[in-house]
């Protein structure tokens, strides 16, 4: 009756073994890591930390050994991500390469691209960002205007990418640009390029967000030359490639664990002897959290089985964002104090950050409205 | 999905489609016992899924409860199943016929809100640490009902039980079984409500367009579908871990999650249906009123959330994630 499939999946033994290893590693590595930084989670860029993970072999975990990967299962990768996120590890530096750019290259990249970049992602030496959004193109991604014009030996790029997470600290961007085409239609003439951001004609400017974070970046291309070898996949196939990439982007556990820190700090504040009201509030959160986790695990299981849980990923992301965004409201209703973002009190600092930060959770990676549009299509309404 | 499960679901849907018509539901609401529908279901063998030597596995039986919810079955189908499981687990024989079940304390003289107490051939009382079986002639039922007008009677029993067995925490087990059953029934009702609402939105035309073409309606129905999906998965997850040891956390989660979904989803379904959905004639209320009732039965959200919350807070925040990732 439901147009979705959420099969039951449990973690296999290997995944449970890895869970223990990752926990032990994080307990040690993040021993003195402050709560308010943990709250930033996968927004926090820390090249050192990513290199430590790389040393464990935990970047590109599922990729072929020939590129430095471990050929482990999607469920093992799922467990790794879950543990990193629930501990609030600063994973932003390698996150995009591991989640999106690497898999994209594995699917559509040339042999040379794979040989060159995958081992560097795995070793924590190449950090990637996603150049899709522009000043005039957000939800309506197909309207992007940044142009790549063919010239001798490659292309010349002009235009501006905006909101590109951590581009100012990354080495490479997978950019979506317009290329010449005879075909009609808004989805025609889009191509993906792997751009070395240190190149001439590329200016990067970090943009401070309302939490004080500096993740956003504006990337301006002025007659920037990219070699022909930078084209990913086929010229003109960018739209289809991007859509398949979004499935990776939307299905992970990062879509419901972003407010976990505030749940934990709220629990600490309540303490072991709650009133009935407090116990009920925490119990409801747990019911949501546990259900989200099972649904997320189900999506991972379907990915492992080689299925295409695009619609299911949209469901999890939408439910997850509603859940995550509800947490600051709940904490406010319980305690209601004005909080100082720079407070030494963990609850205060985490509460301040997540109240301000959680509004972005239903924007990044496809807005709530866009996701619900995808779900509505799945229901046969569009 | 296992083959058994597919087969069970197909059978259940076929049986219920045939015997549970809107007329049958209407008549049941007036208080009339639906013998023909019960008999058809019993003949199919579905009511004895847990009663025989070769019992159906819980993870497969999930679809039976869900189908009963989807078809808004107006007789104690779920109750017969869980009562049967409890009897059998306590080492007692499971009689034929409709069985109902109630959770009671040792001292309770009257048993309240017994589903179909007046109609059931047998009553299982999970009283403290005892499982007791009574037959119809021992039952005096004062009629009562829930919001969906399903019989929820106040019952007194006379004489000694036909059968009785000590069973560790019978009343606690029965409450979990009831919550589990209602979670799956709610998932079924939510699924039906989603299909019905989508269908309605595609048919009904306003401003020259099907309602379903309006983005505001699409977005609402998308939310309804995500709520239904969450309730469904939470229930399935709980059923999958059922066995001799109750998956208490999973059951509590399923009941809370389904209850929350019920509230949100029913509101959306009614909004999408407009006035017609507010009538007695339209079938929408056969789901929404049941959802509002079922979310309250065998422990409402606050009952189960309180348990979950207390356990987690007693353990402390450091244990929350490891506990959830294991549950
Ligand atoms: C923290 C964060 C990190 C990000 N990182 C990246 C990144 O690394 N790379 C990158 O390329 N982009 C990134 N983005 C950009 C993100 O993809 C866009 O914000 C998103 O696609 C929405 O675009 P917009 O902000 O221009 O809003 P708009 O598209 O202008 O939308 C504004 C509002 O209108 C709604 N809306 C728009 N169109 C419709 C419609 N057809 N029907 C109904 N409602 C509609 C939207 O849902 C939204 O609520 C990031 C954004 C955030 C917040």
Describe, in plain words, how this protein is organized in 3D.
The complex is a heterodimer of chains A (382) and B (327). With 382 residues, chain A is an alpha+beta fold. Chain A has three domains: 13-126, Acyl-CoA dehydrogenase/oxidase, N-terminal domain (Butyryl-Coa Dehydrogenase, subunit A, domain 1), CATH 1.10.540.10; 130-236, Beta Barrel (Butyryl-CoA Dehydrogenase, subunit A, domain 2); 251-378, Butyryl-CoA Dehydrogenase, subunit A, domain 3. Chain A is built from twelve helices and eight strands. A four-stranded mixed beta sheet of chain A has the order 1-4-5-8, covered by helices on one side. Chain A has a four-stranded antiparallel beta sheet with strand order 2-3-7-6, with no helix packed on it. In chain A, helix 1 (13-29) runs parallel beside helix 4 (74-87), helix 5 (92-108) packs antiparallel against helix 6 and helix 5 crosses helix 7 (238-250). The longest helix of chain A is centred in the C-terminal third of the chain and has 29 residues, at 276-304. Chain A is globular and about 70 Å long. The two termini of chain A are 18 Å apart. The mean pLDDT of chain A is 95. Chain B has 327 residues and is of the alpha+beta class. Chain B folds into two domains: 3-168, no CATH class; 171-316, Butyryl-CoA Dehydrogenase, subunit A, domain 3 (Up-down Bundle). Chain B is globular. The two termini of chain B are 22 Å apart. Classes of the chains: A alpha+beta (382), B alpha+beta (327). At the A-B interface, helix 8, helix 9, helix 10 and helix 12 of A face helix 6, helix 7, helix 8, helix 10 and helix 11 of B. The structure holds flavin-adenine dinucleotide (FAD). Flavin-adenine dinucleotide is lined by residues 129-133, 138-139, 163-165, 360, 363-364, 367, 369-370 of chain A.
